[in-house]
Amino acid sequence: MKKLLIFTLLFTAQAVTLAVAEQAADLSVTNAYIRTMPPGQTKTAGFLSVTNNGALSCQLTSAKSSLSSRIEFHEHQHSQGMMRMRPVAAVVVPPGETVVFAPGALHIMLFNIDAALEAGDITQMQLATDQCGSISFDAEVRSLVKKSKPMDGMHH
Ligand SMILES: [Cu+2]
């Protein structure tokens, strides 16, 4: 009888763990991309949108990529007329909301990159959270250099 009770408790604990792990499915990542690097650079920035479709608040605690041994969340901040980047320890995605990482705003900074990044390449990344599990997604390498139109602004 006692044995059965312990078994039931263990089983219940496992069911609860599974239920929590399933919350990870409530996070979705869209429009993930990494900027190509200018020649000689070993760091670049990544951007994406994270939507929390679950009921729990999710805090993004870290990002991973096989391209980089050091990744940080950064935000841009105006201070004394200067645009500065500042590391952010964690990013909160409240239930039902989408947090957008975009150029000039919140972004993912990837350091120590050895590989050449070619536009069109796809690389897998992961985001880890405090209580919503982790999520893997594909990020596309994109060139953000605007193609300047020839003779732009030179009308005769
Ligand atoms: Cu940065």
Can you put this structure into words, describing what you see?
This protein has 156 residues and is mostly beta strands. The chain has a domain of 108 residues: Sandwich (Immunoglobulin-like), CATH 2.60.40. It contains 1 helix and 10 strands, in the order αββββββββββ. Strands 1, 2, 3, 4, 5, 6, 7, 8, 9 and 10 form a 10-stranded mixed β-sheet that branches. β4 and β5 form a beta hairpin. It is globular and about 45 Å long. Bound molecules: copper (II) ion. Copper (II) ion (CU) binds next to β8. Copper (II) ion binds next to β8.
Quote the beta fraction. over 45%
One letter per element, helices H and strands E, the order comes to HEEEEEEEEEE
Count of runs of 4 or more consecutive helical residues: 1
CATH topology of one domain, by name, is Immunoglobulin-like
What's the CATH superfamily of one domain, by name? Answer: PCu(A)C copper chaperone
Low-pLDDT stretches: 19-23
Please identify the structural class as seen in this structure. Answer: mainly beta
Observed structural traits:
156 residues; 10-stranded mixed beta sheet; Immunoglobulin-like; 13% helix; mainly beta; 1 helix; binds copper (II) ion
Present the secondary structure layout.
Blueprint: H1 2-21, E1 27-35, E2 44-52, E3 58-65, E4 70-79, E5 82-88, E6 91-93, E7 98-101, E8 107-111, E9 122-129, E10 134-142
The structure holds copper (II) ion.
In short:
The protein is mainly β and 156 residues long. The protein has one helix spanning 2-21, and strands at 27-35, 44-52, 58-65, 70-79, 82-88, 91-93, 98-101, 107-111, 122-129, 134-142.
